[in-house]
Amino acid sequence: MSQPQLDQNTIDAMFSRGAKSGEILPVDFANRSSITPEQMQVLLSLNAQFSQSLSVNLSSWLGANIKLAMMSAERCMYPSMLDMLDLPQSYFAQLRFRSPDARALVSLDLALVEPVVHLGLGGAIDSAPTQPSNREPTQIDVAIMEILLESIANEMNRMWGPFGLQAGYEARVLPSSVQRVFPATEYVLCFTYEIQIGNTQGVMQVALATAIASMLLRGVGGRTTDRVQPPATRHMLQNRLEQIGFRTTLRLPHFKVRASEIVNLAPGAILRSSLPRNTPAIFTLPGGPTWDAAPAVSDGRIAAKLLKLQTPRNLQG
User: What is the per-residue pLDDT for 10?
Assistant: First the structure.
């Protein structure tokens, strides 16, 4: 049986009816809520701590100076992220979040893998390879990379823990399978980091699933970039600040003197005031409170016995 033939006029009429009735609508998958400047500020602050902590831990483990810094954070469709990667020259691994149950994909330049393996096996930084070889990663390579990825997951948990997010290393992902980690319509949150190991530089990317990204950005939106110090740190800072000296003043209240008395002032002269003998002095701290005080002597030093805190009304009077 022959197939029906549609001419161009018939096709145009079909699409015209669909557009008018609202049955056909364009879909812009990139039109999602993006990262606000406020959210970006919090993400930068959190990632600065993450980068510093991970750099210290990796440097201690590998016995070399490892530097890590975040380069960017953006939301994009998963295929767009993959388009920016050289898949054959990348090492991929999958992390799994527990609540919500979702994935994260970590990608590392292969140029970083061999120095990590070399140092992880006890090699010296001066003899670490600077160019990736074309060989497939061995079981030893994968085992050492698992240690690296578990360290990354642990530091991520410290960073995202306040938002209720916890992840763990799950498995290596082959380049041939990486396109199936997320659906093509997944809108991921992608963090890009630059890593330097000796003379070798490379890029690491962490892509979070939509469910994780949405939960994270909601939490970030309710926070500020103000850091709250741990109690032990606050106590240490308070103790140190208490040892800092400040210039203070202990003086009598204002009183009038004759101009002739000022002209005749000389060392040893006595300048009489009209103030009663029991008038308290004034103790002041620049930018701080003002007290009525009694001058005293303690251990051979001039001291002040604080009597009463002055109110703004007293000061004006």
Answer: 54
